[in-house]
């Protein structure tokens, strides 16, 4: 999707009054009805606190879906025009490379903004958005929904209660079994749009590693390559198509049997990065886009034990803890904690994400997600991608401005 940008922003517009005046439902506008439109559907809760009242997408065929799902909504091709539609908040669900422009317009207009992750595709663009939100005292929320995934929250609770002692190392293996379908047939495959999948896809897991460790990466090194999908010569442009138009979990195996990849494929399909966090924790993240299975496996090692998840969603997912004695291989562990099963996408994470965003729009205050942490995950992913493309050179991760970081760590205290 390409969003047409207005030549004139809504700077100076009085912020919509919904959350200030005690309205029952927040009025939400949605930019982008593509891959993440399920979040828009989650946010439409008429009579229960929020409703989608306007949508923006240059693909007008998506408007029929919006009307079926949301009723008599306002429809726009131009994002600037939608910002004049008396909104309390916007969800920006458009491709990554549009975030800085659309987010800049919304934040300058004083409209509370939900930005799908990653915050942006360049570190300087992240810093621009953070500064605009502070300058205009506009509430900014970044959609790192994995902080609401039951498996991640279970691990974090176990760490907080001291199940493994003081955390020393975190490892994450990400088996992206549907990577060929989800990331190599559209704009995700073009590094001009994403920087790379270590950023676009990995930003989730890098953020989780930082959250579990209680610190951000300050030094990284990485290796990776485009190892499989570059060998596939069958390519086609898919303007207007969506993954549902080509995704078939029973087909496309083995990976080299894929067809119809994006005309430009120049992002890595295999990546491995090492991280040194600013509290001394060391971490690793591995991502592969052609595995037969699709899930994430985290291992957290501390001074008094180890924990690891098996499965990340669904009724069989558990977190196992080994912390009572030394032994050989023991699949039974000392403690097995079932991962709660919740309704909605990503194991209930999407519902939790929207719950928190709507509460934040209305009342402000601290949130489990963090704009500054979102910036930290982008910065680590970008610098690691640079390391890959420079032969694995060790690189420092630029820190955010101290005053800007303090503003967000204190819960955006200036927000209206």
Automatic annotation (TrEMBL):
Domain GFO/IDH/MocA-like oxidoreductase: 152-308
One Pfam family per UniProt: GFO_IDH_MocA_C3
Gfo/Idh/MocA-like oxidoreductase N-terminal domain location: 26-144
Coiled-coil annotated spans: none
InterPro entries: Gfo/Idh/MocA-like_OxRdtase_N, Gfo/Idh/MocA_oxidoreduct, GFO_IDH_MocA-like_dom, NAD(P)-bd_dom_sf
Tree of life domain: Bacteria
UniProt-recorded Gene Ontology molecular function terms: nucleotide binding
Protein's name in the database: Putative dehydrogenase
Organism: Stackebrandtia albiflava
């Amino acid at each position: 999707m390409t969003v047409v940008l207005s030549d004139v922003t809504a700077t100076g517009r009085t912020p919509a009054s919904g959350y200030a005046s005690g309205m029952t439902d927040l009025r939400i506008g949605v930019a982008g009805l593509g891959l993440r439109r399920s979040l828009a559907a989650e946010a439409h809760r008429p009579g229960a606190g929020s409703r989608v009242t306007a949508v923006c997408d240059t693909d007008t065929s998506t408007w029929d879906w919006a009307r079926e799902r949301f009723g008599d909504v306002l429809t726009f091709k131009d994002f600037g025009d939608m910002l004049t539609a008396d909104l309390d908040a916007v969800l920006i669900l458009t491709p990554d490379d549009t975030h800085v422009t659309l987010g800049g317009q919304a934040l300058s207009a004083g409209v509370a903004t939900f930005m799908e992750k990653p915050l942006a595709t360049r570190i300087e663009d992240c810093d621009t958005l953070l500064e605009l939100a502070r300058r205009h005292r506009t509430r900014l929320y970044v959609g790192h929904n994995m902080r609401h995934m039951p498996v991640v929250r279970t691990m974090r609770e176990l760490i907080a209660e001291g199940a493994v002692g003081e955390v020393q190392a975190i490892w994450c293996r990400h088996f992206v079994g549907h990577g060929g379908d989800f990331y190599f047939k559209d704009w995700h495959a073009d590094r001009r749009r994403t920087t790379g999948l270590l950023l676009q896809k990995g930003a989730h897991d890098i953020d989780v590693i930082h959250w579990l460790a209680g610190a951000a990466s300050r030094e990284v090194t990485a290796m990776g390559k485009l190892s499989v999908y570059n060998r596939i010569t069958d390519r086609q442009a898919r303007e207007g198509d969506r993954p549902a138009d080509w995704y078939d979990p029973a087909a496309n195996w083995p990976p080299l049997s894929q067809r119809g990849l994006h005309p430009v494929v120049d992002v890595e399909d295999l990546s491995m990065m090492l991280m040194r966090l600013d509290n001394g924790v060391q971490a690793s993240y591995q991502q592969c886009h052609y595995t037969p299975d699709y899930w994430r496996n985290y291992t957290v090692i501390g001074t008094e034990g180890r924990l690891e998840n098996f499965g990340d969603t669904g009724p069989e997912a558990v977190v196992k803890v080994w912390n009572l004695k030394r032994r050989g291989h023991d699949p039974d562990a000392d403690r097995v904690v079932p991962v709660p099963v919740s309704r909605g996408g990503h194991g209930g994470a999407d519902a939790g994400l929207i719950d928190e965003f709507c509460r934040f729009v209305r009342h402000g205050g601290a949130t489990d997600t963090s704009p500054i942490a979102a910036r930290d995950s982008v910065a680590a992913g970008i610098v690691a991608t640079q390391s890959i493309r420079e032969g694995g050179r060790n690189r420092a991760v630029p820190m955010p401005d101290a005053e800007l970081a303090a503003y967000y760590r204190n819960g955006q205290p200036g927000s209206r």
